[in-house]
Specification:
Number of strands: 7
Low-confidence stretches: 5-12, 14-23
Distance between the termini: 68 Å
Structural class: alpha/beta
Order of helices and strands: HEEEHHEHEHEEH
Shape: globular
Radius of gyration: 20 Å
Length: 182
């Protein structure tokens, strides 16, 4: 009897895991489809940290633009730990010189001064855009799932490809195809 009970529990657990996985897959698919049909807007002004300089810039999409987005849920220490990832994305975009723009956009929580000062001290050698007004976050258009936080947009601001080309071979090849067709 005890053996049958264990088998039942294992079977029930397996079914629950499968249902949960399918539910996550379906939610990701729906969230991704919604995101891919969304026209994103950039804030009218963003701060840029590069080297030891802080500047303000006006923004517009220049097709195509590879965006890596880090939202307010990412703490300053987490962002600093991801600087190498950000650098790899920037290096990937450099491969296409003037054909591919890259925007690494950070939307800090309410303490943007701490993040800005930390980046200035790190002497980052590529541009990092700071959305200190949380414009992108407040629009609530970028999904909360971080797998949707690196994406390629066209000139109209609509996502074309989702995925980090430095970690995802399919995203890399698709982005390269798009850029090479220009």
């Amino acid at each position: 009897m005890l053996n049958s009970y264990k088998k039942f529990l294992v079977s029930l657990s397996t079914v629950c895991i499968i249902i949960s996985s399918c539910s996550n897959f379906i939610n990701d698919t729906i969230e991704g489809a919604k995101f891919m049909s969304t026209k994103l807007e950039l804030p009218s002004k963003l701060l840029i940290v590069e080297d030891d300089t802080l500047l303000t810039t006006t923004c517009e999409f220049k097709a195509p633009t590879l965006i890596a987005y880090y939202g307010p849920a990412d703490c300053t220490a987490c962002i600093v730990n991801r600087l190498n990832d950000m650098k790899r994305i920037n290096e990937f975009a450099k491969e296409f010189s003037h054909l591919l723009n890259v925007m690494i956009i950070l939307t800090p929580d309410n303490n943007s001064d701490e993040l800005i000062n930390t980046l200035l001290m790190r002497d980052v050698d590529f541009p990092i855009y700071i959305d200190s007004q949380q414009f992108l976050y407040r629009q609530n258009l970028i999904p909360s799932n971080s797998k949707f936080h690196t994406f390629l947009v066209g000139g109209d601001g609509t996502p074309i490809v989702v995925g980090d080309p430095t970690k995802n071979k399919r995203a890399e090849s698709t982005i390269k195809e798009i850029i090479n067709s220009i």
